[in-house]
Design brief:
Triger factor/SurA peptide-binding fold, five-stranded antiparallel β-sheet, extended, membrane, PPIase_dom_sf, transmembrane helix, Periplasmic chaperone PpiD
Length: 621
């Protein structure tokens, strides 16, 4: 997990990446922090349920990851319900595997200590500045993710325990030196070859194809001539962002808004907090007594920061003398927040209980609130007012669009007249090549629905994005079917001519191979020495054939291979041993083989745990 946090924390989109990464392991454990529920289970693993909400959260996280990774391609894939169903099923299988691992780790008594978690976080580069652990950065990242430190550490414990099990069972895989040496010798092997290409192009002109032959090919291969379902849409689109461009806001309006809403432009007071925390533990009375004992030490004159370092069970803030961060009012739990904002600078509280434990809170510093000048926020206010006016207009038009297209369901003209806009038309497209934004799943679903596609009615209002919607209806529709023979006849004729030409080329190549004389034919062949397995200087079909042929035993080996436009005669003269095998190459191959073996072991482990346990999927899965 931390490796992914490290990669994702380097760019401007760190927040979104971190959310995806941490949720990828967190979603299975979140329910344990929130308590039990009575919702239906997506699956039950040895009596423990994976809830539908946990599956949905994991699925949405995976969708977001795929969308970020695949970009526009994902929109097209997402239009296929079968694809999304397969993604959801793979997510469920991952949750089942994680649950099996967690159960096995518990049975084996595996544990991860607080110190191990602390070390993992403090040595994680994503939480460091100039190579040193930065508590402010750490807390800032957690705030961005919406996590408390305790919750994050619990999720870390789950993840690290799981990886401890996998490492103990799978990480022991090893690769023998002979395996890497053999693989290196095979991959690095080169071959000396000669080849002669018999081009089919000259024979195309002499090929003859009758109408009967073309018709017969068409009848025999009718499945190749299926045309996909196509359609074109009429639509009315409303977009508040476009409307905002036509909205004007005067300086006077902006000034008036500023004067009426000055409270919005106050920089809120912030307070720098520190605390000494004693976790609730199993015995709350003992925890409270320990916190009160620390308070007594403070009253006796001992230093707050030193006590935080030695006594606080929040090890991260404790290392900083108890310092947490700057907080605006309302950010922390009410019990903590009320006390913090009741203290004077430099003072500390009595023992305060929250859901995290017993605190002694100290106010280190205060940043007073301040009023932002009008000139500093003028542009922001104008943009806000433009957006507000545009959104108000948008919602009015959207309601009119919904009403009119419902009342007059077989045309968009009435709605267009009412709104003062034009009815737009899309080009013809299929389900898999729809232009944006018609490639969005909701639009495709509506376009191919019975109501729109078959009945010719207007769709409901489709929300594309925030304050962006459209209504669609069918302009034209062509059902999937077989393309008529006359429309594909010329293509069939060309194909059959090419096949005839290729057959002539094949026969000539066979003749040349049968009569091959090494001494007499060398002038007709192109020579390629030390041809590598992945060499791209010659046709891939020739290269592949060369590495499929048996090693010569005294005399050259000859064979033929089909090309895209003809045939080739390939002569294998010699197999050369691999060169340049060094320790770096062997090490890389060893790592690759070890990863492959470990992956196989992991899959076998999950399969074994499934076979030994009881995994029950709900009927909906």
């Amino acid at each position: 997990m931390l490796e992914k946090i490290r990669e994702g924390s380097q760019g401007v989109i760190a927040k979104s990446i971190l959310v995806l990464v941490i949720l990828s392991f967190a979603f299975t454990g979140v329910s344990s922090y929130l308590g039990s529920s009575t919702e239906a289970a997506a699956a039950t693993v040895n009596g423990e349920e994976i809830s539908e909400s946990a599956l949905e959260q994991a699925y949405q996280s995976e969708r977001a990851r795929l969308e970020q990774q695949l970009g526009e391609m994902f929109e097209a894939l997402a239009a296929d319900d079968a694809y999304l169903a397969s993604v959801k099923q793979s997510v469920l299988e991952r949750l089942v595997a994680e649950k099996l691992l967690d159960q096995t780790a518990t049975e084996l008594g595996l544990r991860v200590s607080d110190q191990q978690i602390k070390n993992a976080i403090m040595t994680e580069p994503a939480f460091q500045t100039d190579g040193q652990f930065d508590n402010d950065r750490y807390l800032a990242i957690l705030r961005q993710l919406g996590y408390q430190a305790n919750t994050f550490r619990n999720m870390m414990r789950t993840d690290m325990t799981r990886r401890q099990l996998v490492a103990s069972l799978v990480g022991s895989e090893f690769v023998l030196p002979g395996e890497t040496s053999y693989l290196a010798s095979i991959q690095g092997q080169t071959r000396d070859v000669r080849y002669h290409i018999v081009d089919a192009s000259p024979f195309v002109a002499d090929a003859k194809v009758t109408d009967e032959q073309a018709q017969s090919f068409y009848n025999t291969n009718i499945a190749q001539f299926m045309s996909p379902e196509t359609l074109s849409l009429e639509y009315i689109e409303l977009d508040a962002s476009d409307m905002a461009n036509d909205v004007s806001v005067t300086d006077e309006e902006a000034q008036a808004y500023y004067d009426e809403n000055k409270q919005q432009y106050l920089k809120a007071e912030k307070r720098l907090a520190a605390h000494i925390l004693i976790n609730l533990g199993d015995d709350e009375s003992a925890s409270k007594a320990k916190a009160e004992a620390i308070y007594t030490k403070l009253q006796a004159g001992e230093d707050f920061a030193e006590l935080a370092k030695t006594e606080s069970e929040d090890t991260f803030s404790g290392a900083q003398g108890g310092q947490l961060d700057w907080f605006e009012q309302g950010v922390m739990e009410p019990a903590f927040d009320d006390v913090l904002y009741s203290l004077s600078k430099g003072s500390y509280s009595t023992v305060v209980k929250t859901s995290f434990g017993y605190h002694i809170i100290k106010l280190l510093d205060v940043q007073p609130g301040a009023e932002a000048p009008f000139a500093d926020v003028k542009d922001k206010i104008i943009a806000q007012l433009k957006e507000k006016k545009a959104v108000d207009t948008y919602f009015g038009l959207q309601q009119t669009l919904a009403d009119v297209t419902y009342e007059v369901p077989d045309t968009l003209s009435e709605a267009a007249t009412e709104l003062g806009v034009e009815v737009m038309t899309t080009p013809v497209f299929t389900r898999t090549n729809a232009p944006a934004p018609f490639d969005k799943p909701d639009v495709l679903k509506a376009a191919f629905s019975t109501n729109v596609l078959l009945d010719g009615m207007n769709s409901d209002v489709i929300e594309l994005d925030a304050n962006h919607a459209m209504v669609i209806r069918i302009k034209s529709h062509t059902a999937a079917g077989t393309v008529e023979f006359e429309k594909v006849k010329s293509g069939i004729v060309e194909r059959l001519k090419q096949e005839q030409a290729n057959e002539v080329a094949r026969e000539k190549a066979q003749t040349l191979m049968s009569s091959f004389d090494d001494a007499e034919s060398s002038a007709e062949f192109v020579t390629q020495t030390k041809l590598g397995r992945f060499d791209q200087t010659i046709d891939a079909a020739i290269s592949n054939k060369a590495f499929q042929m048996a090693q010569p035993a005294g005399t050259a080996v000859v064979d033929t291979v089909a090309l895209a436009n003809g045939y080739a005669v390939v002569v294998l003269d010699k197999v050369n041993a691999a060169e340049g095998i060094d320790d770096n190459l062997l090490s890389a191959l060893e790592q690759r083989l070890s990863a492959q073996y470990s992956e196989g072991d992991y899959r076998a482990l999950i399969a074994t745990l499934k076979a030994k346990g009881e995994v029950v999927y709900s009927s909906a899965q």
